[in-house]
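Journal club prep — side note

Before the paper discussion, L.F. wants everyone to see what a predicted structure for a comparable chain looks like in token form. Sequence:
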Amino acid sequence: MKCSDFNKAINRSADGEMTETAHAAMQKHAGECPACRRRLQEIHRLSAILATDRAPDVPPGFAAAVMKRARTIAEPQRVGTISFLPAWWHAMTHPARIAAAAMFAVSMGLGALMGWDAGRTRTSPLGAVKPDLVAQYSLDYFEEAPAGSLAQVYLALAE
């Protein structure tokens, strides 16, 4: 038996869930390997403690000592954080930040690609043609507006 096999089976041995041949092989290995023998003794000792219904006594002042130690530990300082970013950005995990940045970059790229020729003047064999703003921005509901109305003023300013 190898030490790796021994370590995998040691808990089953302590719980009494092994066959006699496997248990004998573990005992033989523990007799030859001092590290595995110490590990087996520790597991048996722990099993004996857990088998009793009595919990070990807590030393007096243990809770006060733990609380005193907890108060002395300072909150860890963040190193290299950028202060103008919102707090939720710092609370995100690193993979989530990468995904958010990638999604932002892709959406900006798609937006730029989709609006690439929105404001360009079209050219034709006859020369430059101004874009039809009414058709381009779906403002056809302004066409029926009376002269001097807000809609007519907007259309005049947009052209």
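L.F.'s comment for the group: The mean pLDDT is 77. Keep this in mind when we get to the figures.
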